[in-house]
Amino acid sequence: MKWQDKGIVVSLKKYGENSLILNLFTENHGLHAGLVKYSNSKKNRSVFQIGNIFNIEWTGRLEDQLGYYKTEIENTISHYIINNHLKIDALITQTSLINKLLADRQVHSSLFLETLNFIFCINKNEKFWIEKYIKWELKFLSELGFGLDLNNCAVTGSTNNLQFVSPKSGRAVSLNGAGKWKKKLFPLPNFFLTKNINNHDKSELLKGINITTYFLNQYVSSIGLKLPDIRDRFTNKLLNLNEYSKSDN
After folding, report:
1. With contact defined as beta carbons under 8 Å apart, do 26 and 56 qualify?
2. Contact between residue 89 and residue 3 where contact means Cβ atoms under 8 Å apart
3. pTM tops 0.85, yes or no
4. What are 45-103's pLDDT values in tens digits?
5. Are strands 2-15 and 53-59 parallel, antiparallel or unpaired?
6. Cα(65)–Cα(191) distance, rounded to whole angstroms?
7. Fewer CB within a 10 Å sphere, N or C end of the chain?
8. What does the alpha-carbon distance between residue 186 and residue 178 come to, in Å, rounded to a whole number?
9. CA angle (89 as vertex; 186, 166 as ends), nearest 5
10. CA atoms of 105 and 30, how far apart (whole Å)
11. Alpha-carbon torsion 144, 191, 158, 164, what sign?
12. CA dist list (Å): 227 to 7, 15, 199, 231
């Protein structure tokens, strides 16, 4: 069997003297591992890194075998990531969540494209990348079957003045619909409701990360797991971030 695809490195480990087991998040074959021939040269050490993007060819005698990868590098992480500890933690958090929580060989093409877009975003040093990361977690929750419904109010059905999220249902709640339960609901950040991200407000970031943290924890608890430690480190750095603009550099 043989197929070609594009993949993002989410984990790798040495296998024997001259091979690696490379786990890639691919566009059309999901989370998929393969064996790749590897020499421990300086060039190879820089190529086979978390977050790098490859064009690949997988071959195997049977579909359920580990198989072998032939790889051609398409994109490597840039100095904008390497020199920014918060971006490194975001990238490792993202790839760790994919590696730990997605089922092997189940296709998630739209999530793959969102992941690719985020990596390109931080690689090009674009602004508002933290909001984009948090919105990626919203997409990830949806792919896990734990998505939020922010289209209308869970109480009134209205699409106007949506200001909260219910921790029980994951649905949006309007100001009128919240009533006396307002203090038990999550404040809804504005950037959850728009495609145009142009916000530098730390309080909005914290609203967003609090929501995704809660629902990710709900999901992993339901399957007897915990979130990767790196995500706690990343979110703790966000909580202690004094100036968002510093994270853009």
Report:
1. yes
2. no
3. yes
4. 778 999 999 999 999 999 889 999 999 999 998 888 999 999 999 999 999 999 999 99
5. antiparallel
6. 43
7. C
8. 11
9. 10
10. 5
11. positive
12. 23, 26, 27, 7
Edge to edge, the sheet with strand 172-174 lists 172-174, 162-165, 186-187
Length of the chain (residues): 249
Residue by residue, DSSP assigns 159-195 as: -SSEEEE-TTT-BEEEHHHHGGGGGGSEEPPGGGG-S
Fold of 79-150+188-248: de novo design (two linked rop proteins) (1.20.1440)
**Intrachain domains 2-75 and 79-150+188-248 with the same fold:** no
Give the containing element (helix H, strand E) for 24. strand 19-26
Amino acid in the structure at residue 165: V
Sign of the four-CA dihedral 123, 119, 208, 198: positive
pLDDT, tens only, 125-137: 988 999 999 999 9
**Kind and range of the H or E run holding 79:** helix 79-82
CATH topology of domain 2-75: OB fold (Dihydrolipoamide Acetyltransferase, E2P) (2.40.50)
Structure tokens that stand for 229 in this block = 């430690």
C-alpha closest to that of 122 among 178, 80, 89, 179: 80
